[in-house]
Amino acid sequence: MKIARFTEHGRDGLAMAVNGMNFKGIYLDKLGVLGDLQAALEKGPEAIRNLTHALSLGEDIDLNQVSLRPPLLSPEKIICIGLNYVDHSVESGFVTPTYPTVFSRFNSSLVGHGEAIERPLTSEQLDYEGEIAFVIGVGGRNISREGALKHVFAYSLFNDASLRDYQTRTPQWTIGKNFDRTGAFGPYLVTADELPEGARGLSLQTRLNGDLVQNGNTDDLIFDIPTLVAELSAVMTLRPGDVVVTGTPAGVGAARKPPLWMVPGDVCEISASGLGTLRNPIVAAG
């Protein structure tokens, strides 16, 4: 199934489609004790079943006629993986990592499908990074690689838009990855049962103003999704609703000569087989 979060007439809601694109939606204030998706994930599988049953009885909704929000607004953790494709590691001047390169994003950086990514006043080096993200459904610590996919609830798309000059001001990348309204997430979640196991073999493309700038495939991940779950959970307890952003393939603007930065008026689109298209205009902050 696909689950989207939307806003219409000042009211937040959830919408769901099963084996297709015909969404049914309900405003959150009508869901009552069933709560939001984040709350249902934290309560467990029965709460998810109750929530999705309620959504299946909702009214037909056209996602093109509402404002989409990030599928999850307040995950406890947004964990990003850098340099997770060999070709991107090479173009960035790094050796292929032997252990995942981990940094964090914060909720304040998130925007949804159709919302504007903002280029801040303090930098012009706004770069695109098309990525696939996954959401933890069942939490845990020290999860085995063999059992890792049982902990994955759904997948989505992410634009890890980065301010490169800020990113390189320190040895850690966090500062360049957390400007407000630079992390696009959506357009919806796609549950794991609708995709190949471990999201293997998914093509991933980024287009800037219609031009193809990144073209990768999840088969080329250095650390695949089971490995990421196992390695991360060896360090920290993964909780329901945590988001892991898996890395970007080659073609980023910073590696081009001359560099290709996103500017106000641009439109960036990220697409992956089975996950739809995440589309965001670029505007100047303020």
CATH topology of the largest domain: Fumarylacetoacetate hydrolase, domain 2
* Weakly predicted, low-confidence segments: none
CATH class identity of the largest domain: Alpha Beta
Helix/sheet category: alpha+beta
Distance between the termini: 37 Å
Mean pLDDT: 96
Number of strands: 19
Cofactor: Mg(2+)
Family: Belongs to the FAH family.
Protein name: Fumarylacetoacetate hydrolase family protein
Domain Fumarylacetoacetase-like C-terminal: 77-283
Brief account:
The chain has helices at residues 28-31, 37-43, 45-56, 86-91, 164-167, 225-233, and strands at 2-8, 11-17, 23-27, 59-61, 67-69, 78-82, 101-105, 110-111, 117-119, 126-127, 130-136, 152-160, 162-163, 183-191, 203-208, 211-217, 243-245, 267-272, 276-284.
Can you describe this structure?
There is one protein chain. The protein has 6 helices and 19 strands. By secondary structure, it is of the alpha+beta class. It folds into 2 domains: 2-68, no CATH class; 78-284, Fumarylacetoacetase-like, C-terminal domain (Fumarylacetoacetate hydrolase, domain 2, Alpha-Beta Complex). Strands 1, 2, 3, 4, 5, 6, 7, 8, 11, 12, 14 and 17 form a 12-stranded mixed beta sheet that branches. Strands 9-19-18-15-16 form a 5-stranded mixed beta sheet, with no helix packed on it. A two-stranded antiparallel ribbon has the order 10-13. The longest helix is centred in the first third of the chain and has 12 residues, at 45-56. The radius of gyration is 18 Å and the shape is globular. The model has no long low-confidence stretch (mean pLDDT 96). It comes from Variovorax ginsengisoli. This is Fumarylacetoacetate hydrolase family protein. Belongs to the FAH family. InterPro entries: FAH (IPR051121), Fumarylacetoacetase-like_C (IPR011234), Fumarylacetoacetase_C_sf (IPR036663).
